[in-house]
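Example record

The entry below shows one chain as it appears in the dataset: sequence first, then C-alpha coordinates.
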Amino acid sequence: MKLETHSPTKSKVQKKDPAMISTSGTMDRGAFDFHTRISEHEGDIMSVATRDVITIPPTTRIIDAIKTMTKKNFRHIPITDAGTNRIEGIVSSFDVIDFLGGGDKNRLIENRYHGNLLSAINANVSTIMQHRVVSIPSDGNIKEAFDLMLKNNIGSLPIVDSTNNVRAICTEKDFLKFTAGIVTNKTVADHMSKRVEKAPAEMTISDAAKVMVKNHFRRLPVVKGDILIGVVNASDIMDFLGSGEAFEKLTTGNIHDIMDAPISSLIGKDVVWTTSDTDLGKASELMIKNSIGALPVIDNVKLCGIITERDVLRAMAE
Protein backbone atom coordinates (compact mmCIF):
# COMPACT_ATOMS: atom_id res chain seq x y z
CA MET A 1 0.00 0.00 0.00
CA LYS A 2 1.28 3.48 -0.66
CA LEU A 3 0.18 6.78 0.71
CA GLU A 4 0.67 9.81 -1.47
CA THR A 5 0.19 13.52 -0.90
CA HIS A 6 -0.31 15.52 -4.07
CA SER A 7 0.76 19.12 -4.34
CA PRO A 8 -1.81 21.54 -5.77
CA THR A 9 0.82 22.60 -8.30
CA LYS A 10 0.76 19.11 -9.80
CA SER A 11 -2.95 18.33 -9.60
CA LYS A 12 -6.18 20.11 -10.49
CA VAL A 13 -8.15 18.23 -7.88
CA GLN A 14 -8.33 21.13 -5.42
CA LYS A 15 -6.45 24.11 -4.00
CA LYS A 16 -5.44 22.40 -0.77
CA ASP A 17 -3.30 19.32 -0.31
CA PRO A 18 -5.50 16.24 -0.64
CA ALA A 19 -4.73 12.82 0.79
CA MET A 20 -5.06 9.87 -1.54
CA ILE A 21 -4.46 6.19 -1.13
CA SER A 22 -3.84 3.60 -3.84
CA THR A 23 -3.56 -0.17 -3.72
CA SER A 24 -1.83 -1.03 -6.96
CA GLY A 25 -0.02 -4.34 -6.80
CA THR A 26 -1.55 -5.55 -3.54
CA MET A 27 -4.37 -7.74 -4.75
CA ASP A 28 -2.50 -11.05 -4.56
CA ARG A 29 -3.45 -12.04 -1.02
CA GLY A 30 -6.07 -14.51 0.13
CA ALA A 31 -9.77 -13.68 0.13
CA PHE A 32 -11.16 -11.75 3.08
CA ASP A 33 -14.35 -13.19 4.62
CA PHE A 34 -16.25 -10.38 6.31
CA HIS A 35 -18.98 -12.66 7.65
CA THR A 36 -16.40 -14.85 9.37
CA ARG A 37 -14.78 -11.79 10.86
CA ILE A 38 -17.98 -10.43 12.43
CA SER A 39 -19.08 -13.92 13.49
CA GLU A 40 -15.99 -14.11 15.68
CA HIS A 41 -17.79 -11.65 17.98
CA GLU A 42 -21.26 -13.12 17.56
CA GLY A 43 -23.53 -12.74 20.58
CA ASP A 44 -22.01 -9.52 21.85
CA ILE A 45 -23.27 -6.41 20.09
CA MET A 46 -22.22 -4.37 23.13
CA SER A 47 -18.58 -5.18 22.38
CA VAL A 48 -18.61 -2.93 19.30
CA ALA A 49 -21.32 -0.43 20.24
CA THR A 50 -20.85 3.11 21.46
CA ARG A 51 -21.95 3.06 25.10
CA ASP A 52 -21.59 6.79 25.65
CA VAL A 53 -25.02 7.51 24.21
CA ILE A 54 -26.99 10.63 25.09
CA THR A 55 -30.76 10.68 24.73
CA ILE A 56 -33.25 13.53 24.85
CA PRO A 57 -36.99 13.55 25.63
CA PRO A 58 -39.54 14.26 22.87
CA THR A 59 -40.42 17.56 24.57
CA THR A 60 -36.91 18.92 23.90
CA ARG A 61 -37.04 22.00 21.69
CA ILE A 62 -35.73 21.49 18.15
CA ILE A 63 -33.21 24.27 18.67
CA ASP A 64 -31.88 22.53 21.81
CA ALA A 65 -31.63 19.21 19.98
CA ILE A 66 -29.55 20.92 17.28
CA LYS A 67 -27.31 22.45 19.93
CA THR A 68 -26.80 19.10 21.69
CA MET A 69 -26.00 17.23 18.48
CA THR A 70 -23.57 19.96 17.41
CA LYS A 71 -21.81 20.08 20.77
CA LYS A 72 -21.46 16.29 20.99
CA ASN A 73 -20.72 15.82 17.27
CA PHE A 74 -23.61 13.34 16.86
CA ARG A 75 -25.21 12.44 13.55
CA HIS A 76 -28.12 10.77 15.35
CA ILE A 77 -29.69 11.11 18.78
CA PRO A 78 -32.32 8.74 20.23
CA ILE A 79 -35.51 10.29 21.61
CA THR A 80 -36.68 8.63 24.82
CA ASP A 81 -39.42 9.02 27.40
CA ALA A 82 -38.18 11.35 30.13
CA GLY A 83 -39.43 9.10 32.93
CA THR A 84 -38.62 5.62 31.68
CA ASN A 85 -35.89 6.24 29.06
CA ARG A 86 -37.81 3.99 26.68
CA ILE A 87 -37.12 4.76 23.06
CA GLU A 88 -39.81 6.69 21.20
CA GLY A 89 -37.98 7.97 18.14
CA ILE A 90 -34.70 9.14 16.67
CA VAL A 91 -33.57 12.34 14.98
CA SER A 92 -30.64 12.76 12.62
CA SER A 93 -28.73 15.65 11.09
CA PHE A 94 -30.57 14.83 7.86
CA ASP A 95 -33.93 15.37 9.61
CA VAL A 96 -32.67 18.78 10.73
CA ILE A 97 -31.71 19.98 7.26
CA ASP A 98 -34.92 18.46 5.89
CA PHE A 99 -36.78 20.69 8.35
CA LEU A 100 -34.71 23.85 7.81
CA GLY A 101 -33.55 23.25 4.26
CA GLY A 102 -36.65 22.76 2.16
CA GLY A 103 -37.67 19.11 2.41
CA ASP A 104 -41.06 17.67 3.31
CA LYS A 105 -40.52 18.53 6.97
CA ASN A 106 -39.87 22.16 5.98
CA ARG A 107 -43.51 22.48 4.99
CA LEU A 108 -44.37 22.30 8.67
CA ILE A 109 -42.88 25.77 9.12
CA GLU A 110 -45.37 27.20 6.66
CA ASN A 111 -48.37 24.97 7.32
CA ARG A 112 -48.24 24.61 11.10
CA TYR A 113 -46.32 27.72 12.15
CA HIS A 114 -47.45 30.07 9.35
CA GLY A 115 -43.90 30.69 8.20
CA ASN A 116 -42.68 31.70 11.66
CA LEU A 117 -39.25 30.07 11.91
CA LEU A 118 -38.77 31.17 15.51
CA SER A 119 -41.94 29.36 16.58
CA ALA A 120 -40.99 26.32 14.54
CA ILE A 121 -37.52 25.79 16.03
CA ASN A 122 -38.96 26.15 19.53
CA ALA A 123 -41.40 23.31 18.85
CA ASN A 124 -40.84 19.86 20.34
CA VAL A 125 -38.30 17.67 18.58
CA SER A 126 -41.04 15.04 18.29
CA THR A 127 -42.32 17.22 15.44
CA ILE A 128 -39.43 16.19 13.17
CA MET A 129 -38.18 12.92 14.70
CA GLN A 130 -38.51 9.56 12.99
CA HIS A 131 -41.21 7.68 14.89
CA ARG A 132 -40.40 4.27 13.48
CA VAL A 133 -37.17 3.15 15.11
CA VAL A 134 -35.35 -0.06 14.29
CA SER A 135 -33.48 -1.26 17.37
CA ILE A 136 -31.76 -4.39 18.66
CA PRO A 137 -31.69 -5.95 22.15
CA SER A 138 -28.49 -5.58 24.14
CA ASP A 139 -27.96 -9.36 24.10
CA GLY A 140 -28.19 -9.43 20.30
CA ASN A 141 -25.33 -10.41 18.03
CA ILE A 142 -23.20 -8.35 15.70
CA LYS A 143 -24.26 -10.06 12.48
CA GLU A 144 -27.94 -9.46 13.28
CA ALA A 145 -27.24 -5.77 13.90
CA PHE A 146 -25.29 -5.49 10.67
CA ASP A 147 -28.08 -7.16 8.68
CA LEU A 148 -30.73 -4.91 10.26
CA MET A 149 -28.86 -1.77 9.31
CA LEU A 150 -28.42 -2.84 5.71
CA LYS A 151 -31.95 -4.19 5.32
CA ASN A 152 -33.50 -0.98 6.66
CA ASN A 153 -30.99 1.34 4.99
CA ILE A 154 -30.18 3.12 8.25
CA GLY A 155 -26.95 4.62 9.57
CA SER A 156 -27.47 3.89 13.25
CA LEU A 157 -29.09 1.27 15.44
CA PRO A 158 -30.10 1.97 19.04
CA ILE A 159 -29.43 -0.91 21.43
CA VAL A 160 -32.09 -1.47 24.06
CA ASP A 161 -32.58 -3.65 27.13
CA SER A 162 -35.59 -5.85 27.94
CA THR A 163 -37.69 -2.83 28.90
CA ASN A 164 -36.79 -0.93 25.71
CA ASN A 165 -34.45 1.47 27.52
CA VAL A 166 -31.56 2.71 25.40
CA ARG A 167 -28.24 1.20 26.49
CA ALA A 168 -25.97 2.08 23.56
CA ILE A 169 -25.93 2.83 19.86
CA CYS A 170 -24.25 1.15 16.90
CA THR A 171 -23.33 3.06 13.75
CA GLU A 172 -21.91 2.36 10.30
CA LYS A 173 -18.54 3.56 11.53
CA ASP A 174 -18.51 0.85 14.22
CA PHE A 175 -18.81 -1.81 11.52
CA LEU A 176 -16.32 -0.11 9.23
CA LYS A 177 -13.64 -0.96 11.79
CA PHE A 178 -13.99 -4.63 10.83
CA THR A 179 -12.62 -3.91 7.36
CA ALA A 180 -10.14 -1.11 8.08
CA GLY A 181 -6.60 -1.98 7.03
CA ILE A 182 -7.59 -5.42 5.68
CA VAL A 183 -6.97 -6.45 2.08
CA THR A 184 -10.48 -7.45 0.96
CA ASN A 185 -9.74 -8.02 -2.75
CA LYS A 186 -12.71 -5.75 -3.47
CA THR A 187 -12.02 -2.39 -5.10
CA VAL A 188 -13.68 0.98 -4.86
CA ALA A 189 -14.41 0.90 -8.60
CA ASP A 190 -16.94 -1.93 -8.29
CA HIS A 191 -18.89 -0.46 -5.37
CA MET A 192 -18.73 3.33 -5.62
CA SER A 193 -21.65 5.49 -6.72
CA LYS A 194 -20.83 6.72 -10.20
CA ARG A 195 -23.68 9.22 -10.28
CA VAL A 196 -22.25 12.19 -8.42
CA GLU A 197 -24.34 15.29 -7.83
CA LYS A 198 -21.95 18.22 -7.51
CA ALA A 199 -22.56 21.59 -5.90
CA PRO A 200 -20.93 24.65 -7.48
CA ALA A 201 -18.95 26.63 -4.92
CA GLU A 202 -21.32 29.58 -5.27
CA MET A 203 -24.48 27.51 -4.62
CA THR A 204 -26.25 28.71 -1.48
CA ILE A 205 -26.40 26.57 1.63
CA SER A 206 -30.18 26.59 1.29
CA ASP A 207 -30.11 25.27 -2.29
CA ALA A 208 -27.47 22.66 -1.44
CA ALA A 209 -29.64 21.43 1.43
CA LYS A 210 -32.60 21.13 -0.95
CA VAL A 211 -30.52 19.06 -3.38
CA MET A 212 -29.42 16.75 -0.55
CA VAL A 213 -32.95 16.27 0.78
CA LYS A 214 -34.55 15.81 -2.65
CA ASN A 215 -32.02 13.14 -3.66
CA HIS A 216 -31.58 11.62 -0.18
CA PHE A 217 -27.86 12.46 -0.26
CA ARG A 218 -26.07 12.89 3.04
CA ARG A 219 -23.15 14.68 1.36
CA LEU A 220 -22.28 16.78 -1.68
CA PRO A 221 -18.91 17.28 -3.38
CA VAL A 222 -18.29 21.00 -3.89
CA VAL A 223 -16.53 22.13 -7.07
CA LYS A 224 -15.12 25.33 -8.48
CA GLY A 225 -15.18 24.89 -12.20
CA ASP A 226 -13.79 21.39 -12.68
CA ILE A 227 -11.80 21.45 -9.44
CA LEU A 228 -13.00 19.57 -6.36
CA ILE A 229 -12.55 21.87 -3.36
CA GLY A 230 -14.35 19.93 -0.65
CA VAL A 231 -17.23 17.75 0.49
CA VAL A 232 -20.09 19.06 2.63
CA ASN A 233 -22.44 16.72 4.48
CA ALA A 234 -25.69 17.07 6.41
CA SER A 235 -23.85 17.26 9.72
CA ASP A 236 -21.72 20.16 8.44
CA ILE A 237 -24.87 22.15 7.72
CA MET A 238 -26.41 21.23 11.07
CA ASP A 239 -23.20 22.12 12.91
CA PHE A 240 -23.12 25.45 11.09
CA LEU A 241 -26.68 26.18 12.22
CA GLY A 242 -25.92 25.10 15.78
CA SER A 243 -23.00 27.40 16.49
CA GLY A 244 -21.73 30.95 16.23
CA GLU A 245 -23.44 33.67 14.25
CA ALA A 246 -25.74 31.24 12.46
CA PHE A 247 -27.10 29.99 15.78
CA GLU A 248 -27.80 33.56 16.88
CA LYS A 249 -29.66 34.20 13.62
CA LEU A 250 -31.57 30.94 14.02
CA THR A 251 -32.71 31.83 17.54
CA THR A 252 -34.02 35.18 16.37
CA GLY A 253 -35.81 33.70 13.39
CA ASN A 254 -33.72 35.67 10.91
CA ILE A 255 -31.73 32.97 9.14
CA HIS A 256 -32.34 33.69 5.47
CA ASP A 257 -29.16 35.73 4.98
CA ILE A 258 -27.16 32.94 6.66
CA MET A 259 -28.71 30.20 4.50
CA ASP A 260 -27.93 32.32 1.43
CA ALA A 261 -24.20 32.10 2.14
CA PRO A 262 -22.24 29.98 -0.38
CA ILE A 263 -21.92 26.28 0.40
CA SER A 264 -18.15 26.62 -0.06
CA SER A 265 -18.06 28.63 3.19
CA LEU A 266 -18.71 25.38 5.10
CA ILE A 267 -15.58 23.66 3.82
CA GLY A 268 -13.28 23.53 6.80
CA LYS A 269 -10.63 20.95 5.98
CA ASP A 270 -8.64 19.46 3.16
CA VAL A 271 -10.25 17.01 0.77
CA VAL A 272 -9.40 13.39 1.47
CA TRP A 273 -9.86 11.33 -1.69
CA THR A 274 -8.94 8.05 -3.30
CA THR A 275 -8.70 6.32 -6.66
CA SER A 276 -10.94 3.64 -8.11
CA ASP A 277 -8.31 0.89 -7.76
CA THR A 278 -8.16 1.30 -3.98
CA ASP A 279 -8.99 -1.77 -1.92
CA LEU A 280 -12.09 -1.32 0.25
CA GLY A 281 -10.09 -2.18 3.35
CA LYS A 282 -7.79 0.77 2.74
CA ALA A 283 -10.74 3.01 1.90
CA SER A 284 -12.28 2.04 5.26
CA GLU A 285 -9.03 2.81 7.03
CA LEU A 286 -8.83 6.23 5.40
CA MET A 287 -12.41 7.09 6.39
CA ILE A 288 -11.85 6.11 10.01
CA LYS A 289 -8.48 7.83 10.24
CA ASN A 290 -9.95 11.10 8.99
CA SER A 291 -13.35 10.76 10.72
CA ILE A 292 -15.29 11.02 7.46
CA GLY A 293 -18.13 8.95 6.05
CA ALA A 294 -17.24 9.10 2.35
CA LEU A 295 -14.38 9.48 -0.10
CA PRO A 296 -14.54 11.23 -3.47
CA VAL A 297 -13.03 8.99 -6.15
CA ILE A 298 -10.67 10.69 -8.57
CA ASP A 299 -8.98 9.13 -11.59
CA ASN A 300 -6.76 11.20 -13.87
CA VAL A 301 -7.73 14.40 -11.99
CA LYS A 302 -11.41 13.76 -12.77
CA LEU A 303 -14.11 13.18 -10.15
CA CYS A 304 -15.64 9.88 -11.25
CA GLY A 305 -17.55 8.69 -8.17
CA ILE A 306 -17.95 8.62 -4.43
CA ILE A 307 -17.62 5.72 -1.99
CA THR A 308 -19.44 5.84 1.36
CA GLU A 309 -19.44 3.84 4.59
CA ARG A 310 -22.66 2.18 3.50
CA ASP A 311 -21.25 1.25 0.10
CA VAL A 312 -18.36 -0.51 1.82
CA LEU A 313 -20.65 -2.39 4.19
CA ARG A 314 -22.96 -3.47 1.37
CA ALA A 315 -19.97 -4.77 -0.54
CA MET A 316 -18.81 -6.74 2.49
CA ALA A 317 -22.28 -8.29 2.84
CA GLU A 318 -22.17 -9.80 -0.65
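Notes for this example: The mean pLDDT is 86. The CA atoms of residues 204 and 261 lie 5 Å apart.
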